[in-house]
Write a structure and sequence with these properties.
This protein has five helices and two strands. The chain is mostly helical and 146 residues long. It has two domains: 59 residues, no CATH class; 79 residues, no CATH class. The N and C termini lie far apart (46 Å). It comes from Acanthoscelides obtectus (Bean weevil).
Length: 146
């Protein structure tokens, strides 16, 4: 699709009247499409279908108005977002694969306490990361912890 065609579609695609804003948050323009889609995803996709890579739940981050469950104060925002999405699956023995955007040692520990095994990458400068000896950090790019 060309750039001009994309911008034409973007200009003409509207789900609500822009002159009557909804006071229920920043998603008012897409809420009529987003809410039914999210409910359909929750109702029609079971956990055993995770092998297919289907989306089980989604959360659009809109800043301070996003409904995030405050699970632990120390988890910071990204960890609490992960726990909000995982809440229905806690204490059921599932496995979670995450990237370095929201992973941290504290999140991995919290997930393990809630019977969710966690595997993924983590940034070296994250809070609560163990300090590595210079000889390891200079010659290795990957270090495994169990």
């Amino acid at each position: 699709m060309s750039r001009d065609r994309y911008f034409q579609l973007l200009r003409s695609l509207h789900f609500v009247d822009n002159n009557t804003p909804d006071p229920n948050g920043r998603l008012f323009k897409i809420r009529h499409v987003y809410d039914p889609f999210r409910e359909a995803v929750k109702k029609n996709i079971n956990l055993f279908e995770c092998e297919t890579g289907y989306v089980l739940d989604l959360l659009i981050y809109t800043g301070a108005t996003t409904n995030i469950r405050q699970y632990k104060e120390e988890l910071v925002k990204s960890g609490n977002i992960a726990m909000t999405l995982l809440f229905p699956y806690l204490n059921k023995g599932h496995k979670l694969y995450i990237d370095n955007r929201c992973s941290s040692p504290l999140l991995a520990q919290t997930l393990l306490e809630n019977k969710i095994n966690c595997c993924g990458t983590v940034k070296q400068n994250r809070k609560h990361m163990p300090k590595l000896k210079k000889k390891y950090s200079q010659r290795l790019h990957s270090i495994f912890f169990y």
